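I am going through a labmate's work and have reached the protein record below. What it holds is a sequence and that sequence's fold in token form. Please read both lines and tell me whether the tokens look consistent with the sequence. Do not assume that whoever made the record got everything right. Thanks in advance; the entry in question is below.
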Amino acid sequence: MTTDAAADGLRARISRQSEDALGKLAQELLESPFVSTALSRAFDAREKAAQAQEVAMGALNLPSAGDLERLTRRVRSVSQRLEGVEDALDRVDERVGAVSGTGALQERLAAIEGQLTAFAGQLSELAAQLAQPAPAAEVAPSAAARPDAEAELVASVFDTPDFGGAEVRVAPRAGRSTRARAAAARKRAASRRRA
């Protein structure tokens, strides 16, 4: 046991002494002007050789190690930018997917607008018919003489699932001709057939 301890102590002492000696040697070498001059000349020669290699490779139209390194950095940069663009496109795609649910709403609104336009056209036709003066020979008897003078004339029925239903009623004028009534009746029948 004592021999092992003595051997370990001797080994530790030798390693400490060798580390100290190597440290002193390195210190002396670095402080030596001859060694430092030789090291700086070696580094300068290495740099000049690298520059000469780049010039020679450029003359042969071949990429140098520096060119390849710059190209690698640029490819990495472009790759990172493309990843950013892909992420942005994914976010835009998600937003478009969320907004596409409004497409059905747009179609429904367009259908309602078309129906309202048709209704406005029917109302304007009815107003034009009511505004036409009746010929004097075909004037109906006075409203007081007719039993249905108070009855209403149904101009149009516009029934949609969105609005429930709407009717426009127009009270008949006292002097309306039978031709105007017949035209109104035909229009009512046509609108009922369409509905």
Observations:
- The helical segments are 2-31, 33-59, 65-99, 102-131, 178-194.
- The beta strands are 153-158, 166-170.
